[in-house]
Structures are given as C-alpha cells and as structure tokens.
Amino acid sequence: MKNEGMIGLEIHTYLLTREKLFCPCIASRKKGLKPNTYICPICTGQPGAKPMLPNKKAVEKAVQIGLMLGCKIHDNMVWQRKHYDWPDLPKGYQNTLSGGSTFPVGSKGKFYGINISSMHLEEDPASWDPDKGEIDYNRSGLPLVEIVTSPDFTASEEVVDWLKRLTHALSYLKAADSDAGIKVDVNVSIRGKTQRVEVKNINSLEGVQKAIEYELERQEKEGGIRETRRFDEKKGKTMKMREKESQDDYRFISDPDLMPLVLDGKFVEILRKSLPESPEKKLEKLIKKYHVDEKNASILTKHIDVAEFFEKVAEKIDPLFALPWVTVELLRFLNYRSKKLDEVDISVEHFVALLSLVKQGKITPLKAKDILNQFYPKSFMPKEIEGKISDIKELEKFAKEAIAHNSKAASDYKSGDKNAINFLMGAIMKMTNKRADFAKTKEILIRLLK
Hints:
The chain is an alpha+beta fold. The chain folds into 3 domains: about 5-270, no CATH class; about 275-375, no CATH class; about 390-450, Arc Repressor Mutant, subunit A (Orthogonal Bundle), CATH 1.10.10.410. Helix content is about 40%, strand content about 20%. It has 14 helices and 16 strands. It has helices spanning about 55-70, 155-175, 205-220, 265-275, 280-290, 295-300, 305-315, 320-335, 350-360, 365-375, 390-405, 405-415, 420-430, 440-450; strands spanning about 5-15, 70-75, 75, 80-85, 95, 105-110, 115-125, 125-130, 135, 145-150, 180-190, 195-200, 225-230, 235-245, 255, 260.
C-alpha cells in the first residue's frame, strides 16, 4: 500500500489590469511582445525611483478573489520587502502584502473542501533567460496574487481537479488573466515520513500532475529533506535547485516608501455584492429558469461571457429556440476565428434580430448562418435581406434545374445512393443564395426523383 501524500499548493495568477502595480507602465502579458517595451525607472529598479500608490484595480481584484475563496479580508496591511538575490529582481526585493508579522489580503478561507491559508497581492519579477543572460522587464511589476493552500491534498488527481475548478471560478470573476495561465509551486511530502519538498514554477496541469507523482515515488524510495526542486517536463523528473529558504532568509521588512493599505469595510462590502454567480449557481439558474438541459447548460457555463450573452438573448426571444444558435453556431463562429466572445463586437440586439427573422420564417437557417459569419469584426442590424423562398412552384423550378444540370447525382439517387440528394440540395441553395425553404425543397426533390 502506498504512503499517503501531503500536498499543498502555492498558486500565482496575474490580475487583469491596464497598468502595473506601482507604475503607469502598460501591464501587457501578450506573447511575442518585443522585450523591454513597457518599462520605466520604477519597474526597472533605477536608483532613486520611488513606487507610486498601488494600482486600485489590482487591490479590488485581489479582494474579490479573496472573497470568492471564502477568506477573511484584513482591513490593515503593511507592504513588505521580500529580499532575495536573483537577476530578475532589479531592486533586490519584491513588494508583497504577505510574510513577516503582517497580514495578507485574505486568510482562513475554504474552496471546494480545501483550506486556504492565505491569499496575497504582490509584484512579479522580470523574466530572466539564464542561457542567454538576458532580462526582459516587461513583466517586472505586473500585479499578481498568490493563493496558498493547506496541505489537504493526498493525490495528484485531487490537485488537478481542484485547480480546474479554481481556474473556472477565476474566469467568472474576470479578475485574473486566463491567457497568462497560472504558475504553481507544489509542496509535497509523505505523511509522517518525509519533510516538505517544494517543486517550483510549474506552468501546466499536466506538469503539476506528473511532478507530484514523480516526487511521491522518489520520496518513497529516497526519502525527502526540506529543499527546493524544479520539474523538467521533458525528462519527467524533479531536480534539486537549493536548500529550502525559511521566512528569515527573505529578511522581511516594512517598505518605508509605501503607506499601509487600509481597506474600509464599506469598500469590501461593495466588492462582495459585485461578485458574480459561481459556475454552479449559473448552471442551476440556466436549468431552472430557462429550462436548458444539463448538457447544453454545461457548454454555456464553460465561459461566463457566453453564459451571460445567452441570458440576455433569452430575455428577448424563446430560450430554447436561441439555445442551438449560441451553443453551436455562435461557438462555431468564435472557434473558427480563434476568438473569445469579449474579443468580438456582437450586439445582443443584432443577434436577436437575426434569430427573429429565422423564427418568423423570413429567412432560412442557412441564410442566417451566412449572415452570422458576416458579424465579424462587428455585427449589424440584418434588415434589408431577401426573404425565404417558400412558394412550391418557384421551388419546383429550381429543383428541376438542379436535376437537369446534375444528372449523375440524380441518377445515383435513383440507383439507391440516398446521400446524393445532399449534392442536389447544395446546388439549389447555391442558386437561391441559401433562401430556399430546406424542408419543402427536399420534399419536392424526392417527389421529382421517384
């Protein structure tokens, strides 16, 4: 029987803000950005440079995350300098609302059965490439939160499932940058047998799972002392970096250049009331209020912006009629362009107007899909559109023309190839600019081909 693991997490995630934490530089996390584009004397640690007041949006978003995690939000916090000597830290220290004798932003929370020890706000270091000896300061000073759990996990599968729930909930807050992902430090030991080993800077769920499994197996064979290791994803193993630092090693001191952060109770309460529904509550609401089946409700709730878009549409048109237009057609529209809903300009009013034309029988679903494709980069009011062709005589004329010009498909259908009718339907849709009534046209074709 395998020994039981004791696993705790330190999760770092970037906050969605326009500017960095202590300076007005753009907080860009865009991949492929030219190095050292958004920098200034403050975020590069130039002599004599002083930090500005902390970014208010970053503070608000950090508090929201703490509330989501069920944490006690502390009302009086002191910025501290966390010292360590690495090339990616130009000042020689990192400003953080944690450590030492001060309080973090939040503590003593609980999220999906896992205890949250603390959640704090801090600035990110720069990006250092040890192979090239180059440093990119674009990242230096970006606001991020660190969420520290108790060692409540016993296996890698529990950790991965919990992290999926966490990232999903964070996406609903619209506080964390989902594109930047999360960075996880994993603390692993075997209960009653080994000391805690910290595995640093893992950037994927797959990496987290493999690192935990490798480390538990290694500690069962070799034992474990208190140390810091890194995970090599290519080799699938952890390797020692250094002996584990203690609180004293960081030499925490209060930062004399930054005033204490005092949070008014009213300020916190306003943020509490602004919290969105959790993914679970949103799922329940879609099922109960709009009568959406669980499968489609799950599709909608994967992304908060899609779920909210559906709710707005459902207030103006039959929800069950609108459902496939959101879960299938809108998502197809977005996936084809590799875009999120908040990255395109689609008006609820325009979307509902398009669906209304279909529902009223004024245009065909095929024509509506064609118009939806034209909603990129910006939607429009679909007013001046040629209507659906439903007249039997007119449809017969197009059907006869399609049969005459596609004799092989007609012959194949008569010979038993039922799929050949799809080719003929395609020809008619092309001739009518997708305006032909699909069901009536198919009936006419079948009758004419007998």
